[in-house]
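Researcher: We plan to redesign the surface later, but first we want a full-length starting point. Tokens attached.
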């Protein structure tokens, strides 16, 4: 399983548990709605933070792969140039 699926499962289970706990707690409807709203906002913030981290990691990986590919292309051009006797320019 990948990390994204595990994280989504944990967040979903935590949200379901929190909602069930609040719904079965003896409190007025207005109090319960406020609690649900606060918990929902916290989970939304957590999901947003996780998505930002994932996006940053993905961007870093893309840049790394792009640089590696560029390095490989440059080496291939140099090798081709050396075999054909022409000078390689970037």
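Model: Full-length starting sequence:
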């Amino acid at each position: 399983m990948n990390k994204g699926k595990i994280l989504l499962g944990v967040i979903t289970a935590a949200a379901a548990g929190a909602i069930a706990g609040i719904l079965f707690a003896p409190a007025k409807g207005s109090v319960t709605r406020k609690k649900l709203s606060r918990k929902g906002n916290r989970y939304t913030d957590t999901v947003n933070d996780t998505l930002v981290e994932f996006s940053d990691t993905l961007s870093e990986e893309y840049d790394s792969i792009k640089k590696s590919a560029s390095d490989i292309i440059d080496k291939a051009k140099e090798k081709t140039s050396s075999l054909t006797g022409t000078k390689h320019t970037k």
